[in-house]
UniProtKB/TrEMBL annotation:
Protein name: XRE family transcriptional regulator
PROSITE patterns: HTH_CROC1
Organism superkingdom: Bacteria
Source organism: Nonomuraea aridisoli
SMART domains found in the cross-reference section: HTH_XRE
Domain HTH cro/C1-type positions: 36-91
UniProt-listed InterPro entries: Cro/C1-type_HTH, DUF5753, Lambda_DNA-bd_dom_sf
GO MF entries: DNA binding
């Protein structure tokens, strides 16, 4: 795939998505579900009791609150009546959340190529206010060039099936940074991620160009920071955890944890008891890492050695 083809595709999407939603349907849906659970608990009702009073199948509310099925306007009205929501402004807010939760996000264009679970994570990412990511072996997807992404994907997939994966990464980057209030992005990388000469068998310029792109991106955007955990730091928490991402939100929604290990991916929501440990581990990795200036200097040194 040529660079021009990827960027031309992204340019077409830029015109189509001229107004980037600040939170998106996945986050709006999560906010709606959180509010409905809160209202139910305030009335001291169990899921079974709600289903019984509304003459629903017992699993219906479980699916709604778990995000496995959308809630219709009729069902939302029934829930609000049962929960005692009578203020017109509160009712309007819940209906607006539901309406926005049922909208299509830009990532729905990839629904036939990418798993629903991963697209849900991307939906959360699209509405995050803070993104914290640790990568032990590779440059983060949100910082990759098309050429690096293609070379990386080529090692694990059919080369004829790479186009949509690379386009998805490029559009994720573009849409995040075109928001009127872009997220704060903090990346921590093991030194191994910048030392491996990805693409050397095809084009040895791919990796040094990728490293220079990282430097330029960080230096030109005060919302993005990057730190390197040097080999000299010895063992660290990331060696056990592997790659992970923490998403935070400015609307009260709990943190999201996304873990990747090869083909295995897992997204955990704010109430999961494992999230605080990963939050602590990320702070531990920051303490082991070089500061931003030292990190960029090391990356520049490695890029020069590969040129």
């Amino acid at each position: 795939m040529r660079r021009r083809g990827v960027r031309g595709w992204a340019a077409k999407r830029r015109r189509r998505w001229s107004a980037v939603d600040q939170r998106g349907p996945v986050v709006q849906g999560a906010l709606l579900r959180r509010k409905l659970v809160e209202l139910r608990r305030r009335r001291d009702l169990t899921q079974g009791e709600v289903a019984g009073r509304l003459e629903w199948h017992p699993s219906k509310l479980i699916r709604i609150e778990g995000g496995r099925t959308a809630v219709s306007r009729v069902d939302l009205d029934a829930l609000m009546r049962l929960y005692g929501v009578t203020d017109s402004a509160d009712m309007e807010k819940l209906h607006l959340l539901n309406q926005e939760a049922r909208a299509k996000g830009w990532w729905s264009d990839f629904k036939n190529e990418v798993s629903n679970a991963y697209l849900t994570y991307i939906g959360f990412e699209a509405g995050a206010s803070v993104i914290k990511q640790f990568q032990p072996l590779a440059i983060p997807g949100l910082l990759q060039t098309p050429e690096y992404a293609e070379s990386l994907c080529r090692t694990v997939g059919d080369s004829s099936d790479l186009g949509h994966l690379i386009r998805l990464r490029m559009v994720r980057q573009e849409n995040l940074r075109r928001r009127s209030s872009p997220p704060d992005e903090t990346f921590v990388l093991d030194e191994a991620a910048i030392r491996r000469h990805v693409g050397i068998r095809h084009d040895r310029s791919i990796m040094p160009a990728q490293l220079r792109h990282v430097i330029e991106t960080v230096e030109c955007n005060d919302k993005i920071s990057l730190r390197i955990v040097p080999f000299a730091a010895g063992s660290h928490a990331g060696m056990y955890r592997g790659a992970f991402t923490l998403l935070s939100f400015d609307n009260g929604l709990g943190d999201i944890l996304h873990r990747e290990n090869g083909d295995i991916q897992e997204t955990l929501t704010g109430e999961d008891s494992r999230i605080p440990a990963f939050r602590n581990d990320f702070e531990s990795l920051l303490k082991e890492a070089l500061d931003t200036g030292e990190s960029l200097a090391l990356i520049a040194q490695v890029a020069e050695s590969m040129a």
